Amino acid sequence: MVKLNIDIDVDFNALLDAPKSDQEAVLAKVNLALTALKPVQRVQWALNNLPGTHALSSSFGIQSAVMLHLLSTEQADIPVILTDTGHLFDKTYQFIDLLTQRFSLNLKVYQSAMSPAWQHARFGKEWEQGIDGIDAYNKRNKVEPMQRALNELAVGTWYSGLRSAQASSREGLPILEIRGTRYKFLPIIDLNNKQVHEYLTEFDLPYHPLWEEGYVSLGDVHTTKKLEPGMSEEDTRFNGLKRECGLHFEI
Question: What pLDDT score does 25 carry?
Answer without folding.
Answer: 94
